[in-house]
Fold this sequence. Notes:
This protein has 340 residues and is of the alpha/beta class. The protein has one domain (62-330): Vaccinia Virus protein VP39 (Rossmann fold). 37% of the residues lie in helices and 20% in strands. It has helices spanning 21-30, 34-42, 66-82, 109-117, 173-183, 211-225, 234-244, 265-293, 298-312, and strands spanning 47-49, 52-54, 99-103, 122-127, 140-144, 158-164, 184-195, 200-201, 246-257, 319-330. The strands form 2 sheets. Strands 3, 4, 5, 6, 7, 8, 9 and 10 form an 8-stranded mixed beta sheet that branches. Helix 3 (66-82) runs antiparallel to helix 8 (265-293). The radius of gyration is 25 Å and the shape is globular.
Amino acid sequence: MASSSNEAAPMNATVDRPPSPLESLIEAEDSLSASQASLSSSVFEFIHEHGHRYHRKGEALLPNDETEQNRLDLQHQIFRMLLDGGLTLTDLPTDEPLQILDVGCGTGIWAIQMGDALPNATIRGIDESPIQPSWVPPNVQFEIDDVTKPWLITPASIDFVHIRTMAGCIPSWPTLLRSALGALKPGGLIEVTDIMWHFECQDGSMTPDCASVKWADNFHELASMTFHVDFGPSPKMEGWLKDAGFEDVEVRTKIVPVGPWPKDRRLKEIGRYFLIQMLEGGMENYSIGLFTKAGWEAAEVHAMLGRVRSEITDPKVHSFTRAWFITGRKGQSLGSTAAL
């Protein structure tokens, strides 16, 4: 018998209708090329060693896991305390549509706070690891890229380049700084910042053969001789910037106590934060990958770090290190022809 015109359609019948906006978006995302999809997945291909997660290439000496991300955010607070609450040593106009590049942005905390502080600026953070948050200010964007390779940035398009705590990550600083010079507009500014992992003492409470000095010496020697990376580039940065073509290069250093031993209230707080970031990730994150790749047993590394912990938590030991701030400017006469 023929069906009546008002008979209900079968449950599996197909009904033609235009796709919803959400379905259109999903369809568009599904149509990504195979190369794009491969790139998107490959950046999450990490390796795990000694209880830590490293970048997929297996070349990184520092992890990118939660312990390292927490340490980076804590270190960011140390820099803010050193800068009296500021984000840069460089004076930047607050009402201009600046183009700012954060090289090796890490967790993105500096770029995000800079985006909030300068709502008219555009902040672009670049890092090899996808560890930045998704919810960010509308004027902040993150890109996954290797800054040691040729930069895919329009020449002479950036007002300010910010490079912080990239020691040990850059095989050729002169090459990186030439890339930064090429990306900057004439008159554009650069700031390179890091904290040295060398310890000093002025009252004799730390001896030259103590555990922390031996650890730091071994660390820098292995990094340089075995892996050909420099974890102490700051003293050479002034010369590299000048050689790259930067003008008005200035170097400033600030004391960073290791622990809350200073009498000065501000330095005591900075020292407390620095000690925490050393104890809760800093020493192990810097050491375990480098020393084991150089042939040490993990147990040897942990034993060495145990001796360092005992020493730096001793209030009688008054050690400190230094934060370096190196700034420079691209000359007006260089124009947009500087090579990337």
